[in-house]
Fold this sequence. Notes:
- The chain has 355 residues and is of the alpha+beta class.
- It has two domains: 6-226, Hypothetical protein, domain 2 (Endonuclease III, domain 1), CATH 1.10.340.30; 237-354, Nucleoside Triphosphate Pyrophosphohydrolase (Alpha-Beta Complex), CATH 3.90.79.10.
- It contains 14 helices and seven strands.
- It has helices spanning 6-19, 31-41, 46-59, 63-68, 71-78, 85-101, 116-120, 127-138, 147-156, 166-179, 185-198, 217-221, 278-283, 345-354; strands spanning 237-247, 252-257, 268-269, 272-275, 299-306, 310-320, 331-334.
- A four-stranded mixed beta sheet has the order 4-1-6-5. The protein has a three-stranded antiparallel beta sheet with strand order 3-2-7, with no helix packed on it.
- Helix 1 crosses helix 11 and helix 2 crosses helix 3 (46-59).
- Iron/sulfur cluster binds at residues 152, 155-156, 199-200, 205, 207, 210, 212-213, 216, 218-219, 224.
Amino acid sequence: MSLYSQKFYRLLYDWYDSNHRVLPWRETSDPYYIWLSEVILQQTRVAQGLEYYHRFVSSYPTVEQLAAADEDDVLRLWQGLGYYSRARNLHKAARMIVESQKSKVESRDSLFPATFAELRALPGVGDYTAGAIASFAYDQPYPALDGNIYRVLARLFDCDIPFDTSAGKKHFHQLAEQLLDREHPRQFNTSIMEFGALHCLPTSPDCTCCPIRDFCQAHATGTVELLPVRKPRPTLRDRYFSYSIYITPERKTLIHQRTAKDIWQHLYEFPLVEHQTEAEWQAFQPSAVNGDLSPLNFRFSTFTHVLSHQRLHARFFLMPVNELPILRDTITVTWEDLDNYALSRLTIKALEAIH
Ligand code: SF4
């Protein structure tokens, strides 16, 4: 029987009807809300994403309100989610959408981009997000390949091509096109995504009670646990950071904004010294930051923070001082004011540990 037969769709949709989670972005076809949810959910678990989705929807109920916001406010709302370029692109795209609306004011229904090509042209919107918005908001027949769907497809078609290479992406896109229910693209994409998230799990999926196991080639050949295949991981670059957290009796401290084209551009953190080698980092003493500063005492906490291509080794030196030192490009804030700045995830981690 063909994989994309009506029977396959019926079994999948029946499974969805009885098992799916109720999530707010599934209860709407408003492209703005769907776009928000998709950007938030990239690299984020649903439970955490839900909280941020509600924050954004209540702070910026329309794309116009998001476009009118200050970038710093958007970043602050995003704080804790990581991958801040997503928030910056979200904001930039909102401004582009509102700008392009000015030429289409007569027809209020089609103000949000409504074609795959228009969606794909927005900053931060790749094939996946454009396909998701086109199918979820407009019921247009585009695949939306997220990690869950790659896994389900790899198993259904018993395909061991690494899905995260350009050849793999192209191949999986063709498989998704073959499988797509063109009559009901919204229902199909939603169902197969949820099926991957809840049933066809990365390890030990319950194949014995899988409704579509008769269509699953990996189940038939015994390769389920070997799929999907990824390309080998790149080696991570190690970096060594020493942060100085000065704190006066009046609870004042110093922070600075990262401006270089590097990780966490535009975010705030404590004064930083980056070391070239692990040995330099290990030997570092905070008094070396300012020869004339005599910390009364200090203690430090060490963290390892892994990003996609870098592994950061960071020490945070907590230093009670009577007066703040004068350091270039820093600003003085009170401890309570820290909440008003968009801080890097690593800085938040350190603050949580210190409290
Ligand atoms: S049979 Fe197993 S591997 Fe195949 S689709 Fe079902 S749960 Fe996934």
